[in-house]
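Posting for a labmate who doesn't have an account.
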Amino acid sequence: MAKSPPDGGSLARAHGADPGLPRGRTPLPADRRNAAHRERLVRAVIASAAELGCHGMTVADVVRRARVSRNVFYEHFTDKETAFLTALDEGGKQLFTCISAGTHGTDPMDRLRSALRAYLGFLAGEPEFARCFLIELFPCGPAAREQLHLARARFAAGIGRWHQSARRAQPDWPPVPKEIYRALVGAMHELVVAYVRENRVAHLPELEDTAVRLYLAVLREWPTRE
């Protein structure tokens, strides 16, 4: 199992060198303490799964990285698989928030390029999450794979909305079958996964021009029936 680069992202920032949160009576409100525990655990799960795999990581490894007790872990999760699914969900929310915030401009080309830049940049900055989200979830079972399926469906829907907007600005662009949006997501997925497998996550932004040209080659040049 190839390990993630040592200079990792914030979603996997371990707390092994940090002190544990105060135990017993403390001025820290319970809700804030619970939220801090959960954040530590989610980050530790991503770091552990990226390094050891979904099945290879253990609860002991997670709580060691998070600097919390096993009891605290089981206050938040029933098992490591549930914790992994939660971590994927948390990271996925941040990914889509980043894409939404990073998509700029009124020109369709500017919006396409900025959205792809935000997507690739987020994964490049979160190498451990990228490995978990794109590779380690597959052996983790159907529930994890369903999360990826839903994420890819959401990406496809976003491409569809962008394409319809682009066609309003460029009436000469042809319509395409809806399946093409999913096909583009699949093609992009394969490009990104190759970089992750080769431990080239930091270089993902290099795919921006390729991705833009891929989208335009399909959506702008789709053949119409005579």
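Reply:
Got it, the structure tokens are right above this. The chain has two domains: 10-80, 84-219.
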